[in-house]
Hints:
By secondary structure, the protein is α/β, with parallel strands linked by helices. The chain has 13 helices and ten strands.
Amino acid sequence: TQSTWEVYQGVMSNMLAWICVAATAALCAAVPTVELHNAAAPGQTIPVFGIGTGGYGNASGYGGEHWNDTIAEAAVSKYLSAGGRRIDTSLQYYTQTGCGNAWTQSGIPRSEIFITTKCDSPAYGMVPGGYNETVASVKLSLQQLQTTYLDLVLIHWPGTPIPPSNPPPCWSAPNNWTLCRSETWRALEDIYRSGVARAIGVSNYEINHLQEIIDMGSLLPAVNQFEYHPYWHTDDLVAFLKEHSIVPNSYAPLGTPDHMAFFPDDMPVLLPSHPVVKSIATRAGCTPTQVLQRWAISNGFVVNPRSESLEHMIQNLDTFECTLTASEIQSLFHIDNPPIHVCGDPHLIP
């Protein structure tokens, strides 16, 4: 039997959801934006908050939340109703069709929605597949997302740390991804110049990978999306991005607690449960997840937390109401002992 308090919480949660769905997006969340530079159309901006649509778990629930087109469609529909306007997806997330269904059925003009995807290869995965693979990937993404243009297209990973079992033709032994990266970036440049992509960028690139693009004399990426949270922050990379006007985009800003809960030896204390995070949340009058996102934003990042919960989406979009002191921001830089990352380490990719 539910207690009176549990019933009250359920009623309030439903009321909050109803209010946000019924109200206009401007009333629900005035999502701030950041201007993009380098390989981005003049005046192109990116919303600070987005929704991630790539899950870590399998269909049975092991490993965290499982996402597919059906789940993505439902979640993105909620997110758009709450005032969110940036969708982050990928061919290899297997959520693009769901994302496309959600935005087309929302009634919101395409011009008001920011869609990010990655130029994954159906044949070779999340790696840079070369010129022709990239062109084909973007074409397929346009079809699945039901749009004539993309706001941002990223190279998902700069390669693999060990030789792949099924490498693209641009790869060479022993594990050389340089040609693949340059051909893929050249394809994205052409796609950007054609107007099909309003901006192009990279994901999981470290300084050495970015330096390759600089040395090519090419357009610089508008965005670099990579894992960033208090347990894993590559401060030298962040400084490099700032120097070159590349906007940093944090994925896993909460440390993916749904996933890492399955691996307590790797992450004994989940980030939202860390005593320092909880203490700051109590002082600031906000949730631990808001503290973590506000920390990333205070360090110049845009973020894409993943959630199926409308209540959590509303909290995420309301993160700017959570203010941290300078000392609190600094304190979160010092809880990464030892550093813990969720995804692979891009430093290991040659």
